[in-house]
Amino acid sequence: MMCRIVLIIITCCCLLCCNTPRQAGSHQLELHKWVLSELNSMPVQMSNTAKDAHLQFSFKDMRISGNGGCNSIAGTFTTSKSKLLFGPVLATKVACDNMKFEDAFLQVLAQVNRYEITATELQLKNNNKIVARLLPK
């Protein structure tokens, strides 16, 4: 009888563990600040400052935050396996010298539908075409 009770408890624990949602912070996207290094096959100049175009992912609330190269940006995202979709990304509206770059970055984010993390970078893709490369910091 005691063996049955122990077996039932172990089985219940296993089932509960298998169905427990993944804790925030357990996803590779969330482990880094991702700094843009390439956009549409063109290298991006990095200054190693907070103004570098970058993204940070939060699985707690499924939001992104970061910088577009001038303005702070924020939005939502969804992901499943290698799929990645960004919701509307909003930016503060500080006037900057190179708004074309930031606009291009935001347009690319709207086109992303897949991603891949390699040993050295995050690749944002539109289908199989890499549209942005970001480095972990």
List keywords for this structure.
Lipocalin; globular; 137 residues; alpha+beta; 39% strand
Estimate nothing, just give the exact number of structural domains.
Answer: 1
According to DSSP, the number of beta strands is: 9
Q: Beta-sheet strand percentage? A: 35-45%
- Helix-strand topology string: HEEEEEEHEEE
Main pleated sheet: 9 strands, antiparallel
Distance from N terminus to C terminus (CA atoms, Å) equals 55 Å
CATH topology annotation: Lipocalin
Average pLDDT confidence is: 85
- Quick one: overall form? globular
What value does the Rg take, in angstroms?
19 Å
Q: Supply the CATH architecture.
A: Beta Barrel
Q: pLDDT under 50 segments (min length 5)? A: 11-26
Into which percent range does the helicity of residues fall?
10-25%
Which structural class matches the secondary elements? alpha+beta
Q: Would you state the CATH class?
A: Mainly Beta
Structure description:
- By secondary structure, this protein is α+β, with helices and mostly antiparallel strands.
- The chain has one domain: Beta Barrel (Lipocalin), CATH 2.40.128.270.
- It is built from 2 helices and 9 strands; from the N terminus they run αββββββαβββ.
- It has helices at residues 2-19, 99-111, and strands at residues 33-39, 42-43, 54-58, 63-67, 72-80, 83-91, 114-117, 122-126, 129-136.
- Strands 1, 2, 3, 4, 5, 6, 7, 8 and 9 form a 9-stranded antiparallel beta sheet that branches.
- A hairpin with a 4-residue loop joins strand 7 (114-117) and strand 8 (122-126).
- It is globular, with a radius of gyration of 19 Å.
- Mean pLDDT is 85; it is low at 11-26.
